[in-house]
Amino acid sequence: MNAESLPGKQSDAASRRDFLKTGAAVVGGSLLGPMAMSAGAFAGGSDVIRIGLVGCGGRGSGAAEQALGRRPNVHLVAMGDTFADRIESAHSMLQHRSTAARVQVPPERRFAGFDAYKHVIEACDVVLLATPPHFRAAHIKAAIDAGKHVFAEKPVAVDAGGVRSVIESCQHAEIKRLSVVSGLCYRYDLGMRATFAKIHEGAIGDIVAMETSYNTHGLWNHPRQPSWSDMEWQIRNWLYFTWLSGDFNVEQHVHSLDKTAWAMRDEYPIACSGTGGRQTRTEPEYGNIFDHMAVVYEYPNGVKTFSRCRQQDHCAVDVNDHIFGTKGRVDVMKHIVYDHKGDEVWRYRGPKPNMYQVEHNELFASIRSGKPINNGHYMTHSTMMGVIGRMAAYTGQRITWEQAMNSKEDLTPAAYAWGKIDVPPIALPGITPFV
What is the domain count for the chain? Predict the structure, then answer.
């Protein structure tokens, strides 16, 4: 299959146009399937919006609390996770919050297992998807097919096939007038919005280069228990397995990559090359991911993004983005514009509400108003920036966007079953092939 035959993949500029055109197309009922409910008419014709949570870890629990917010007519009615203990832990936590009265999830609507998402989707109007990223594409498809609004945590896939699937699902959501809001939360930060507006207004002139870093310490790890199968051990430690997380260039650094895409008005690179490896997290409990990567993204106008990320203990933390232009530069995280002399010419001084809460405020406002939000373009393409960067670091090759989008790489396991599942070999640049 060539790039022209993939949904929304002819070129980056054409991709955005086609994404919107396809959403407005007149199509048959076979594509539309169940339609979104009209604004103001939800469960049983009432004005109560029923939400369901799929993925009951810390981010999922936080998303549920933010979705409930101060909205009296939003109720949490179903919860699902691969593991029953995660559901009970999240349910207990939410029962001790100010939103407890609207947490209405009896035992019969708490679903565990690989198919839990199907039951949650059936029970709700809006589904919050916060599982390990591997499952996101299938869950988004099921929700959109069922006519449900979606909040999807980042990233939305771990390989190109998953990205292509989500692009198609979001096109269907456009047609069905469903809201799809992404967990790329910086897009909902008011300071960031103002900062990128200044960039787009020409405050630094034409962009000539970008530098982005997401260098942190190591993250959590759950020691393997004797009763755990290979599958359970891997899913409970999903960060460390490429098939589940996409590696951290995809799972974590996607936030930074998305900001560089935003600066470029959501035009995406034509190619990248990179390096990376595994120096400090070498034990088996860290699966098969890298602990550092550096990737250079190339744009057709000669602009390059110099990207690096690291998860190593006892090292300097640096989570920052700098954008350089013909007239000056921007310190993105500080929301400051400087001229070429280094003098500050603008700083954001406006309100700073919690960006996670703003995501949900705008999602539910869009549902109530019948004016859907669809973040499909940037959430899929920024995810793909993470995937192509991983491909370049793993293989040691220069990978074009077209090659990556047509990649046949499929990280899906042979079966979703509680049993043996081998850990794939750790990538070796120059040896690991591009697929």
Answer: 2
Q: What CATH number does the domain containing 318 carry? A: 3.30.360.10
- Kindly give, in sequence order, each residue whose CB lies less than 8 Å from that of residue 256, ignoring residues fewer than 6 positions away: 212, 213, 214, 307, 309, 319, 321
Verify that 144 and 272 share a domain, yes or no: no
* Mean pLDDT taken over the chain: 91
Output the domain CATH number for residue 35: 3.40.50.720
Peptide linkage before 300 cis (omega within 30 of 0): no
Q: How do residues 80-104 score in pLDDT, each as one tens digit?
A: 999 999 999 999 999 999 889 999 9
The tokens describing 401, both together, are: 């966007």
Q: Is 267 helix (H, G, I), strand (E, B) or coil?
A: coil
Cβ 195 vs Cβ 348: under 8 Å: yes
Half-sphere exposure of 125 (CA within 13 A, CB side): 24
In a domain, 317, yes or no: yes
State the Cα–Cα distance between residues 186 and 253, nearest whole angstrom. 12
Do 143 and 101 fall into the same domain?
A: yes
Q: Tell me: do 160 and 201 sit in the same domain.
A: no
152: β partners: 129, 182
226: tokens are 């004797």
Q: Are 195 and 205 in contact (CB under 8 A)?
A: no
Residue 411 is assigned to a structural domain of this protein: no
Structure tokens at 320: 């920052």
Is 432 within a domain?
no
Tell me the pLDDT tens digit for each residue of 190-199. 999 999 999 9
- Check pLDDT > 50 for residue 266: yes
- The verdict on 231 and 283 lying in the same domain is yes
Beta strand ranges found along 234-388 (DSSP E): 271-277, 292-298, 304-311, 318-325, 328-331, 336-339, 344-347
Neighbours of 58 (CB within 10 A): 13
Tell me which residue range forms the domain holding 201: 190-350+384-405
- Of 15 and 301, more confident: 301
Could you tell me if 154 and 211 lie in one domain?
no
